[in-house]
Structure formats: structure tokens, C-alpha cells
# Entry
Amino acid sequence: MSVVSELRRTARSGPSRAPGRAPLRRGDGRAAAVFLAPWFAGLLLVTVGPMVASAYLSFTDYSLLSTPEWIGLDNFARMLEDTRLHNSLRVTFTYVLVGVPLQLVAALGLALLLDRGMRGLPFYRSVFYLPSLLGGSVAIAILWRQVFGVEGLVNAFLAFFNVPGRGWVSDPDTALWTLVLLHVWTFGAPMIIFLAGLRQIPTMYYEAASIDGAGRVRQFLHITLPLLTPIVFFNLVLQVIGAFQSFTQAFVVSGGTGGPADSTMFYTLYLYQRGFTAFDMGYASAMAWLLVLIVAALTAINFFASKFWVFYDD
Amino acid sequence: MTEVRVRTEPAPATPVPAGTLADRTRALAAEAPATHRRSPWPGRVRSVLKHAGLIALAVAMIYPLIWLLVSSIKPTEIIFRDLSLIPAQTDFTNYTEGWNALGRPFGHYLMNSAIIVLGSLVGNLLACSMAAYAFARLEFRGRKLWFAIMLMSIMLPIHVIIVPQYILFSQVGWINTFWPLIVPKLLATDAFFVFLMVQFFRGIPRELDEAARLDGCGHGRIYARIMMPLALPALATTAIFTFIWTWNDFFSQLIFLTKPDMHTAPVALRTFLDSTGQSSWGPMFAMSIVSIIPVFLAFLFGQKYLVKGIATTGIK
# Structure
């Protein structure tokens, strides 16, 4: 059903045509050309063309004003010494490695609490889902900036209990964690996928287990969790890819700087700064390719590791 | 994945007392030693406690949103001193002040956003459904390969193409126009929706279009007269997600629209923050509310499709 499982299937079966399939219908080829024309033009002009250009630019020095100057691997060599880039990688990995698991745990926990046929289920589902629709918006980032600001809601709340507050978004020690929290807050989307997955588990498994005297914990560990691993995997892959590319929240909360002290300098934010404020287009392209490599590697690792923990019923 | 599931109840081999398997299970569980009981509390109490916990959590989750809404009608000076959700003083001047705080009335930026959303809607609905029809129903050389490429393009970070796209669009003079944000949608670059519709089209019985073909319909008519009307739920899902994503999009709008005149609602909000800083939270909150109202309405009216769409494909 999902993109991830579809990709897995395609990867397994390979792109070649299966033998023994019905012969090509006459006329289909021409119709396909017509129906696919926009998509194909988009693939060439908006995706593949720019990818090739970006690959070329990553070996050049280009400021948009002069012609690109070929400098070989210099951009990549520069990356090795660019401490701000290293820092942005550290910040981003911290965000992904902490934020994504926490978000998925919250999503799964809530999905488990929302039983099927429960009273008020549509209400809870909506309320928990809403933040994930708004979470990436500028409006919410602005709200976050205030809530965790010196005079913000959190400090006002803490003052109520006589706990001294701090400028959460202006303190390098805490700024990133406010963004992690924002990410966790948007657990609604994976929660809905978990809910759909839980619906697929036959109730008779649980009935059989309770006859055998298994308690709730054991039912969860031996039935729910194993049968849910494909869904966990699907959410994990998607969320890692998505979180690695987060931009708006960090941009708005830090006022575009990635501060304080580069503590919220997400990788994409640094890429934006190099490319679109410093017009260092060659370097930004090289950075973009590193991003592709990292996302591809993380996805590949996820797929590889999935062999050891994802359980397929089929 | 449908919400309704048929309960698969195995037929008992020997006659058993009345009641479903679940009833008997419950009866057995009641007889079982205490360690095997599901919970020491009766069901009713447990259910009440659970709802209380869920409601508390739900309130905590949307507290920031409600606070944003309430703060937008409070005078700025008391926003930070007043934690309560019922404002002692209401003041709608935040809205008039915020509306006029930037170079143009905020409605101008909302209109810019609306134009981009409308263009993207038309593009995604038309171009993605066309591509999906080809992938789902037509036999052509290399179909599986192209399909795999389409799937992989879903995962491609936009950052790898944005720099050359910027260069390309600046060379054709499209920076500070809406074209860079609309034209790609007309070319079905939101492959997620192609995938979503392929999945949906596959579920439409083939007999329908086979019959139409026997009646002499070409692919154009099968697509327009049979597939599209039947695919309304998938089209609705696409429309709602396109609306919300495009409305919320910030990265590409920030890059392609640099002239204040062309700013969209999110970009304008951001400049608002930059130009006024901490001094005018009230008007800024008011415009934040204004900017998320369309998303909220899309959510409200499209809930059914949103939940279905996200459950099957994982888009958000």
C-alpha cells in the first residue's frame, strides 16, 4: 500500500518486465506518451536536468554573476574543513536521532490508547492530528519563538511555581531542544498510520492470547509489536527523510541565523545561507549532494537493518 | 485500508454455550487467577480514567494553539502577564493593526498565496491524474522502470534541485513571479500524488474501462468520463493536501519571491517578525491566526479524506 512497501517490492522484483505478461496492446504506447507527457517533461526539466546541473555545479565556483569556474573537488575538500558545516551536521543528526524516535514513541503510545470503537475517537484523532498539519508553518514557529522566549508562556508558567525561567530559544544549550519538542508535538501524522496498522491486526490473535492467559504487556510484546513492525519501519523511513530536511522551524525561530551560536543551524538552513544569501552556488550544490548521500545512506541503513527486526506476515 | 473490518470468527468445532468467543474469553479471564486478570478495576472506572487522561493530553496538545487565538485578542501588554484562556480585556485592534503593519494590507499576501495554491491545485489534479492513469491502466515499454523512477523521485530532497532551478528561473526572468511555484505542479512533479492516484485507480474494476473500450471509447474518454468521476475521493485527498502543503510552504516561496510585493502569507509573516521583533506580538499573533485559518478550514472540511489519505500513503 505504502510508498516504502511499494519500493521494497519494486526493488525485489527488479524493473524488468515479468515474463508471460499479456502482450502490449496496440495503441497503448501512443496514449501513454500523451498521458505521461507532462510528467515526463517535469522529470526532465524540473528534476533530472537540475540534478545533472547541480552535479556539475558542485565541482565549480559559481556566484551567479560570472560563469561557473571548474575547481574539481575543491568544494568537497572545503567541506572537510568547514567547521560550521560539521556543526550543522551535528545539530541535524541530534534533531533527527532524538526527535524522530520520541515522536514515534508518542505516536505509537497514543495510537494504542485509542481503541477501535472507542467513544470520541474521531475527536481525539482530530485534536492529536491537527498540530502535525500546522507544525511546519511560519505561524507556529512564531508562536514557538514566543512560548519559549524570555517573556514567554513557559517562563510565565514556571514563575507560577517559583521556578526561575530562561530564554529557551536564546540559550544555545536549550534552543535546539525547543525545536525537538516542536517536532515531537507533530506526532499526529505517524499516529494515524499506526492506528490504521493496528486495525489490520485480527482480534482473534488477542482472544487466543487471553485464553492462554497472556496479559496486556505480553500481548503487546508478542502480538502487537511484531505485527506492527512494518508500520514502524514505514514511519521511521519517512520521518527520518522528512526530519533531515526540516527548515522552516529553525529558520523562523532563529530569525534566519541558525543561532544562538549556530545551535539551531540545521543543515538545510546552512545550505540556504551558502546558496541564497552568500550566492555561493557551487558550494551549496556540493552540500545538496552530500544531503542526498546522507538521506540515501540513512534510508539504505534503515532498509538493511529492517531485515533483522521487521516482521512480514506474508 | 478501511475502517470497517469484518470480524473473523472461527467456527467452533464442538457446540459451545451461547455468546461470542470474546464473551467466553472474558468469562474464562474472570475465573482465571488474579495474575491473569486484565486489570484490577472494573471496565467503567478504567474507561473514565482513560478518557480523563486523554482529554488532559488533548488539552495540553492544543493549549498553545488556543493560547495563540486568545492572545490575538488581548492587548499586547497583558499577553505575557495573563496565562488564563479567558481574556480579562478583549481588544480586536491587533487584527486591524497587524492587517496594515506591512507595506500592503495583509489581504494582498493572502491573495498571493491563494493564486499559487489555485495554480498548484489545477496542476496537481490534472497532471498527476494523467500520469497515474498511464501507470495504472496502460501497457507500455519500460512501465515498471518509469514507475520505479517516479517512486524514487518522491524521496529526493528538494535541495538538490533548488539551486539549478533558481539559476534556470532567474535566466528566464521568472524570479519574483508565481511561475516557478506553479509550472512544476503542472508537470506532475509532486509524485506523491501520482502514486496516491495510481493506488486508487488500481482499485477501480477493470471491467468498467474494458466495457467502455468495447463501446468504442478511446483512452481520453475513459480517463475523463470513467476514471476521473470514480476517483473523486483520491482527487479530494490530493486537493486538500496540495492546498495545505502549498499554503504552508515556506522554503521555495522564500527563495523565488524576494520582492515584498510578491510575498505570500508565510513569507510576509516572517518579515513581520523581522521588522517588528518582540515589540508587537499581538498584531503578529493576529496575522498568524489569519494565516492558518485556511489550513484549519481545509482540515475541517477534508478530515475524512485526510485521514484516509494519510493512512494509506503516509503523507501529511
Observations:
- The first strand of chain A starts at residue 60 and ends at 61.
